[in-house]
Amino acid sequence: MQISFALAGVGAQKALRSRAMLLLTIFSFVLYSIACTIAGACLLRVLLQAQRISFSNPLGQLLLALTDWLVRPARRVLRPQARWDWLTLLLAYTVLLAHWLLMWLLQQLLWAGNLPLNLIALAPLQALFSLLRLGLYLALGILLLYVALSWLLPGHWLHSLSERLCAPWLAPLRRLLPTAGGIDFSPMVLGLLLSIGLLVLKWLELSAIAQAVFGQPLLGSVVPFG
């Protein structure tokens, strides 16, 4: 009888922990989506400022609404003077870092503090890789928007905006690549390079985490697509 009660207690604990893990996974997804939205808006704000693009359009107003609450207080302390707004870039990294630190804390609470404390050292690294990955996805999204609008709505304001954002990335490729039959191959090549960059970044992230956790880099492994 005592063994039965003990087994029932263990089963209840496992079920409770399983539900907690499910809730943590859902919460992590929602939190990461919010963090990526804010950080992505910060990155896009940096790009618009670097290209001297006005924020009077609907996209610019949306970016200001998403980021002003974070950027304006920071600019009261530090106001960057360079073309690239490094302060907003740092804030994007800080948002992602806060997400990873919070997730580590929640996992510690879930596992009753049994997780190794050195895993918290991975948070800055994971935030950096998240920022780089977000930047590559953002560049790829801008490129796809530019290509789609070039065919469908060349007179739309989003087309001119995406064209100005893509111009610094496409200009070097256009100088190197020939134009055949009036077709510009530079967006295709840039998209391929960005996709390769995402694969390389994923491999570097997995290798760095393996080095930090297991003490050895990731060797002989194939990074899956997607």
From TrEMBL:
The keyword Disulfide bond does not apply. Keywords: Membrane, Transmembrane, Transmembrane helix. GO terms for cellular component: membrane. The chain crosses the membrane at residues 21-47, 83-103, 109-129, 136-153, 185-204. It comes from the Bacteria. InterPro entries: CCB3/YggT (IPR003425). This is YggT family protein. It comes from Vandammella animalimorsus. The lineage of its organism: Bacteria, Pseudomonadati, Pseudomonadota, Betaproteobacteria, Burkholderiales.
